[in-house]
Specification:
The structure holds 2 protein chains of 2 kinds. Chain A contains 12 helices and no strands. By secondary structure, chain A is mostly helical. In chain B, the strands form 3 sheets. Chain B has a 6-stranded mixed β-sheet, sandwiched between helices. A 4-stranded antiparallel β-sheet of chain B has the order 2-1-4-5, covered by helices on one side. Chain B has a 4-stranded antiparallel β-sheet with strand order 12-13-11-14, with helices on one face. Classes of the chains: A mainly alpha, B alpha/beta.
Chain lengths: ~260, ~325
Amino acid sequence: MTTSVAEPRPAGFFRDLISVAGRALRSIPREPEVLAPALFIPVFFYFINVGALENVAKASGVSDYRAFQLPVAIIFAVTGLSRASALVLDIQDGYLDRLLMTPIRRVTLLLGLMVADFTLVLAVQIPVIGLGYLMGVRFETGILGIVAFLLMGAFWGLAFTGFPYAIALKTGNPAAVNASFILFFPFAFMTTSFLPMDSLSGWLITVAKLNPVTYLLEGMRSVVTGWDVASLLQGITAIVGVMVVSFCLALLTLRGRLRSGA
Amino acid sequence: MASPAVVTESLSRDFGDNHAVVDVNLEVATGEIYGFLGPNGAGKSTMVRMLCTLLTPSSGQALVAGHDIVRDPGGVRLRIGAALQSAALDPMQSGREILLLQGRLYGLSRRAINERIETLATLIDLGDALDDRIKTYSGGMKRRLDLAASLIHTPTVLFLDEPTTGLDPISRNRIWEEVRRLNGEGMTIFLTTQYLEEADVLCDRVGIISSGQIVAEDSPSTLKRRYGSDVIVAQTPGQEDRAVAILQSLTGVERVERHRDDVMVVTPNASKLLSPVAVALEEAGITVANLTMRTPTLDDVFLELTGGRLRPGEQE
């Protein structure tokens, strides 16, 4: 005898979003190897940079280099952290096809992963901030400043995810997604990550002025040392700008993949 | 009479210069098990991917469960289930998590999903392993779970793309039993296969596809009657050529061929000709070591229609 069950119907945008995000979040602790570099790299560079450059930076007029370096550690932790590799596996295993044969809202396949990414990048910042605290960094702006700092880091991490997702959806190739890590270098190093703008020279100043991370770092640093609305707004603008570009790329490649049915 | 479960009109799909599916017209009745038989690369999977809304046709149209695959893909998706080639699962999730997610995406309540999992328990047959990660499952377990995932919302049309390829005979029989049971409950089944036996034992009707085109379509028995011939095989050690000469003159013989030690008499009706063959050989003084007859197979039909043999696992 067959039991009568509810009729199938589209679950709706938010239920789809929660379903996709829930699956992605469940997977994160099951793949600790994905998280390890996101925690190791910022801690490693934080110690190296502080150890090597603290005195040089003081000579350049940076009074608290440990606070100066904390946003850099955050950028190192969150930039490029995404579920793009898992998406490539879904493409290769055919699981994406299984999801696409359901009435799921297509865009939630991407947005759901991004919700999980946002949660993750928010979480990985906490031990990094804890490390900064142990090293003597104090937020002049109090709890509200810590929240603003965390949110800036998280939204930056989220904004950057569009690039690896676009590569994953375009190529369906894990090697290409891994190679997207290369994008991290110009963003993270051709900026004021080591020394303030005044101490840079030549072409690097020009590039740093064009690099949105420069404004992000200034915004985050301003939150540590005391509210500076102008720096904060510039930082937020930089995040929004990168987010618009990367999300458009990711959504366009999603549409392309759905149309080609590849 | 119920409207057809699947109707296609001049459905085609090109990949650049490769015409994967060419002008396919077919109609699958509601409640039918329809089989698409063809070798690798014949266009079976492309056809299924179009009907499952994963691939847009280059031209032509198709209705599945009464909904247009291009204009109303959402309507199609609510009514179909599909298990595509090689189980499409996430190895990092448990079987139960996959089924719950699948049910949620169809808007089912948690209670309804749990009821469905209970109903599908015989098919899934994973016991406690349902809560283990899928990466620990065997091939047969994955296929059963994949099939269960495609059934969680009780679809009216089920697509199975080579559902038993790579499975051992026991797992294959279990899938066949389940297909028959689902069909008995009224579900229309559209399956692709490169296994002759599978098409023969499961399908009400079979469409033979070659190079993207349907070259014949009917029930397996009708196809065999229409395109295949019965064969009587006689073994006459050392006297094969004489036997061929004698048997060619019998009434009701289409042709006689010698294949090594076998003399093969091709005829529309082997049971009727078996005695005359035995008598003719006896009267000619030819010693018969063995005399057998066999009915045509779908492979004979395929050979007749396309000039090639179906050999599972090989590229066309």
